[in-house]
Amino acid sequence: MAHPPVVLVTGASSGIGRACVDAFLAQGARVVAAARRTDRLDELAAQHDGAVLPLALDVRDRDAVNAALGSLPENFSPIDVLVNNAGLARGRTPLHEDDPDDWDQMLDTNVRGLLNVSGAVLPGMVERGSGHVINVGSNAGREVYPGGTVYCATKAAVERITRGMRMDVLGSGVKVSEVDPGMVETEFSVVRFHGDQQAADAVYEGVTPLAAQDIANVVTWIAGQPPHVVIADVLVYPLDQAGTGKIARRKG
């Protein structure tokens, strides 16, 4: 009998990452739930009797990534599916008014972090001739908007990396996919606006945004395709959105 698949989800403590953990657990997978904040993950692991391995991990730290993923316990390795979800946006000001520290945090997490984790997991997948990398991008990687210059650039990099990665592993049996969500209501906007809940709430005012579970459903659907099928990329919008800044807001 085949063992349950092992899924590694980064940014797993909240939002889309946490929803992906729940969705894969519901399918019987074992999940390595990686995040910097592990208190929530410890609670999750306690509820799922050995099916979740909480892993304290800062994807920006390459040495820590290599050490952690190189020493996973036998029942949580090898990694069959990697969901590169860790990412964030910081600030919404014009480039010339930005805090450069925000640039560094976005570049280090959204781009270098994705590369660090992929670089630790992909060699084993290629060697075994199987595996699936699913990168969580954004519609912001397909277009740009005022105040999002660096964030959009990092998500465009995710799209380029995903395409190149797929070419690099071609013929190895490894799949590479990308999911680009539009407006999803998570802690994303609170983080972006440095804890300003009022500014975050205004982003979703008058619209019904996507929920984290909606994206997790797409991720598990992609992962569940037959071996010969690769869903290369999926763009997901709520009904009230048709692009960045193209929002139908209801009054009252």
Automatic annotation (TrEMBL):
Keywords: Oxidoreductase. GO terms for molecular function: serine 3-dehydrogenase activity. Its EC number is 1.1.1.276. It holds the Pfam family adh_short. Signal peptide: none annotated. It is an enzyme of class 1 (oxidoreductase). Belongs to the short-chain dehydrogenases/reductases (SDR) family. This is Serine 3-dehydrogenase. It comes from Blastococcus saxobsidens (strain DD2). The gene is sdh.
